[in-house]
Design goal:
Blueprint: H1 13-24, H2 29-42, H3 50-66, H4 76-85, H5 92-107, H6 110-116, H7 121-141
Helix pairs in contact: 1-3, 2-3, 2-5, 3-5, 5-7
Amino acid sequence: MDSELIFDVFNNIDAQEWWRDLEDSLGFILLSNTIETAVIMAETKEPLEITLCCQTLIAIELWLALRGYASNDLPDSMKQWLARNQHLSLPIEIELNVEKAMRTIQYDSEWQQEWKHSINYTQWLAQLDEMNQRINRCLQDSN
């Protein structure tokens, strides 16, 4: 049976809880660790859990924004956090892990399995493709 899911990187419970933790933390350690955890979990051959998918996507969106490739939907509170922290150095591990984390979410996650049965599956894929395009431009510009 098809279900109707709504995809919003910034407005879901898991992302909002992670965001509050990030606001309370110093620097980009949580952001980097979240993306790295998604990559490590992908190597276990188990589908990535939905909660980690949500957290990783918001971490990637913030990384993209810090690199000048922000989503048009970036909330004001995140823009303010980015402005306060833009002077800090980003860990290189993020750049090394971001593509694999995205591939895992898109192709080997519980979230992908859930979306696959949604009437909005193609919309979900299109939004992830748009993120992937920004990631690719960002990584190409850094070479």
